């Protein structure tokens, strides 16, 4: 349900940026003046789109944080991990976190990405949620795989719904400028103690709200996320145990294992496209948000594409393809367009990197037809087999924005819905948001709620997009997966650092909007042997000449004036 499973407490496998056809739509609104739009960084608030917000000004805009005491996690958050719940969910004793219905019965239209076949508007899940919140939410679900195109078109038009969901990976190009132009300032409703009218929103971590500051205003309702990388190298634990394979602890061991596993005649390959894991092994700066591409290294601001680690990670990935260890489907470029889970489950390959949500999703999907199926996550390691150097992901992954033209009553109704959808695990509101109606969408089996087919179709990709609680993992049917996921995050979190611009909402000048748009495709072409490392070196040289060096100066000035977010 989210791009980061730590934000997917229902345990359902969620959409990921990696499931998108990776391109970003650009709205027609222009960024004025080429000045930075920076949230919660140093510098004075100029009260305009060109300004920055920091210090006292940021504190004035951010909602007060009031931790929820409704439920207590079995595994507390540590090192940036999600919190985890492993105990069985007793539906009969669920707590109430929203004692009074806040919605006033108004109609609210919401445009949001949806992965799968959207249900009809009058389905029992939507109508039950509307009854719970007191708001008539009308969904304009759009295909998640092409959402970027729809988003750009809608933001460039005059027909903008009351609420528009914008995934963080679409927050590129001119989209942030369009956000500032089209959507409402929520500060008058949520800043400071005002948020206490909505206790579940008040319990959202401040870092997530910080990412919701655009152009000097509090504009987004965030979906909090663990800042530990959400990309896990997953492997078939059952097959490893049966065949006696050892989990690798270095790139060389990984390559040797791949050679041992691969038998093309038997239609078994070792792995999928391991590019994202390679980037983590070699400590490459994150690539999901452009400001994170930059980091201060020995006093110089460096972009990830300029580093030796970037090239070394690509070369290692290329060698896995060249040696024939990668399943043929990935050679066709399907690794980023489709879910390879079915062939992983069939044992055609034994290792692949995916969103942490797949750890649970694969296990759950195989529970009935293949009860011996087991999946687990490998610990990441460094290029020499030592500890890895990992880089923090952003503390919020998806945002919901309210139309600037919306009346106060509509804004209040949206916040009423958000206060319900942000309810913590173990509450009645969380149960309805994530499981739907008992008997219609799920049943209780051995004390565990289990969705039926209708639940899997209808209770999906919708209300959780409006707002979510602090990063949580909870799988009542497979508590061992919950423990494994959170433990993995905690361990990897111990090796995780923050880049200089972590947690800051920045809009680059429009003249640089598409400067790096071709790098991802070139990465994939190199991995598959269609291009060479020298082609990437040439592309980096061109990038620097065409604006990369000037963009570096722009970011460096921002850093000099405002300080680093790294710790």
In terms of topology, how is this protein built?
Layout: E1 37-38, H1 55-61, E2 83-85, E3 107-114, H2 124-133, E4 136-143, H3 147-155, E5 163-167, H4 175-182, H5 187-190, H6 199-202, H7 206-210, E6 213-214, E7 217-218, E8 220-224, E9 231-236, H8 237-243, H9 251-261, E10 269-271, H10 275-281, E11 294-297, E12 300-303, H11 308-322, H12 328-331, H13 341-345, E13 349-355, H14 357-366, E14 375-377, E15 390-391, E16 396-402, H15 408-421, H16 428-435, E17 442-445, E18 448-451, H17 453-458, E19 472-474, H18 479-493, E20 496-497, E21 506-507, H19 519-527, H20 533-562
Parallel strand pairs: 2-19, 3-4, 3-5, 10-13, 15-20
Antiparallel strand pairs: 1-21, 5-16, 6-7, 8-16, 9-13, 9-14, 11-12, 17-18
Label this structure with key terms.
567 residues, alpha/beta, D-Maltodextrin-Binding Protein, domain 2, five-stranded mixed sheet
CATH fold name of the largest domain: D-Maltodextrin-Binding Protein, domain 2
* Mean pLDDT across every amino acid position: 87
Strand order of the largest sheet: 4-3-5-16-8
Number of helices: 20
Q: Please give the largest β-sheet.
A: 5 strands, mixed
CATH homolog superfamily of the largest domain: Periplasmic binding protein-like II
Q: In percent terms, what proportion of residues is strand? A: 15-25%
CATH architecture annotation of the largest domain: 3-Layer(aba) Sandwich
> Low-confidence parts lasting 5 or more residues at pLDDT below 50?
1-52
The CATH class of the largest domain is identified as Alpha Beta
Structural class designation: alpha/beta
Pfam family, one: SBP_bac_8
Family: Belongs to the bacterial solute-binding protein 1 family.
InterPro entries: Bact_solute-bd_prot1, SBP, TAT_signal
Protein name: Extracellular solute-binding protein
């Amino acid at each position: 349900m989210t791009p980061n499973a730590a934000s997917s407490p229902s345990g359902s496998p969620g959409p990921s940026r990696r499931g998108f056809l990776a391109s970003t739509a650009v709205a027609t609104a222009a960024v004025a003046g080429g000045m930075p739009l920076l949230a919660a960084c140093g510098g004075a608030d100029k009260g305009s789109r060109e300004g920055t917000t920091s210090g006292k000004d940021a504190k004035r805009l951010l909602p007060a944080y009031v931790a929820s005491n409704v439920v207590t996690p079995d595994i507390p958050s540590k090192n940036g991990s999600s919190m985890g719940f492993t105990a069985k969910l007793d539906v009969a004793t669920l707590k109430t976190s929203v004692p009074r219905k806040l919605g006033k019965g108004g109609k609210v239209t919401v445009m949001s990405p949806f992965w799968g076949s959207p249900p009809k508007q009058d389905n029992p899940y939507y109508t039950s949620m509307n009854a719970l919140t007191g708001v008539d939410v009308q969904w304009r679900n759009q295909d998640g795989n092409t959402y970027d195109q729809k988003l750009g078109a809608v933001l460039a038009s005059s027909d903008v719904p009351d609420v528009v969901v914008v995934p963080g990976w679409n927050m590129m190009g001119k989209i942030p400028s369009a956000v500032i132009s089209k959507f409402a300032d929520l500060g008058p409703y949520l800043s400071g103690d005002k948020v206490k009218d909505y206790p579940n929103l008040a319990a959202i971590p401040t870092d997530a709200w910080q990412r919701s500051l655009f152009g000097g205003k509090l504009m987004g309702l965030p979906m909090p996320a663990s800042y530990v990388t959400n990309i896990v190298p997953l492997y078939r634990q059952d097959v490893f145990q049966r065949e006696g394979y050892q989990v690798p602890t270095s790139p060389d061991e990984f390559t040797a294992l791949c050679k041992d596993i691969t038998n093309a005649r038997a239609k078994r390959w070792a792995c999928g496209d391991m590019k994202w894991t390679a980037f983590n092994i070699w400590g490459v700066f994150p690539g999901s948000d452009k400001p994170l591409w930059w980091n201060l290294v020995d006093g110089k601001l460096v972009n990830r594409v300029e580093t030796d680690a970037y090239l070394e990670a690509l070369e290692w990935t290329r060698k896995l393809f060249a040696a024939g260890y990668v399943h043929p489907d990935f050679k066709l470029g399907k690794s980023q367009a489709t879910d390879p889970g079915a062939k992983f489950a069939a044992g055609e390959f034994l290792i692949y990197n995916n969103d942490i949500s797949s750890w649970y999703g694969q296990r759950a999907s195989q529970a009935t037809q293949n009860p011996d199926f087991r999946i687990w996550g490998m610990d990441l390691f460094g290029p020499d087999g030592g500890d890895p150097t990992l880089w923090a992901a952003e503390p919020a992954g998806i945002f919901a924005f309210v139309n600037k033209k919306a009346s106060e009553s509509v804004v209040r109704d949206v916040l009423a819905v958000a206060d319900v959808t942000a309810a913590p695990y173990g509450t009645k509101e969380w149960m309805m948001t994530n499981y739907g109606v008992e008997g219609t969408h799920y049943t209780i089996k051995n004390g565990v709620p289990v969705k039926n087919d209708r639940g899997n179709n209808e209770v999906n990709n919708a209300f959780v997009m409006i707002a979510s609680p602090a990063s949580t993992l909870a799988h009542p049917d497979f508590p061992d997966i919950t423990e494994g996921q959170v433990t993995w995050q905690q361990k990897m979190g111990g090796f995780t650092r923050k880049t200089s611009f972590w947690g800051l909402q920045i809009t680059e000048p429009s003249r640089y909007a598409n400067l790096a748009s071709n790098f991802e495709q070139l990465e994939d072409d190199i991995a598959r042997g269609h291009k060479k490392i020298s082609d990437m070196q040439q592309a980096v040289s061109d990038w620097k000449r065409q604006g990369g060096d000037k963009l570096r100066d722009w970011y460096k000035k921002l850093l000099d004036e405002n300080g680093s977010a790294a710790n």
